[in-house]
Predict the 3D structure of the following.
Amino acid sequence: MSRLFFALWPDELTRGALAAAAARVDVREGRRVRAADLHLTLAFLGNVPGAAQAALMTAEPAPRAAAFTLEVGLAGWWRSSRVAWLAPLEEPLALHALHAAVSDAAAAAGLAIERRTYRPHVTIARQVRRSPRGLEAFAVRWQVTDFALVESLQGAAAGRYEVRRRWALADRAGN
């Protein structure tokens, strides 16, 4: 069994910009997420058995999903989960459509995923006990051209991620 999720996985330039924005947020008493692991989760799948993993790896979870742009410019903190985050200024319909498509693909693979209000964000720190400082304005333009199936590694590598597969999104012209 592997712990899997669908995510937007940034290219190196976008990852660098997200890391720079995250570094400006003072996450006192928290554990920062490594720059290499910054991502935006589309759907958390949990522990996935082998047969469902195989189905996901061969699936086309969002065959008509189109590429889009995210303007990441918000930073904040959720007290209840003790997570500091970055988030889009606006949530494009294409992002929500992609979230719905991968959630449906997971259900088709026999996975019972939790359906709750989708709050797209990039986690920048965990176990944050106090509200972060330095939440001033910033802007990261993210050209989203693909999405990934990602494994959350366990054991000695816990807290790290490995991309298992990527799927390209159609360009805006429908190609």
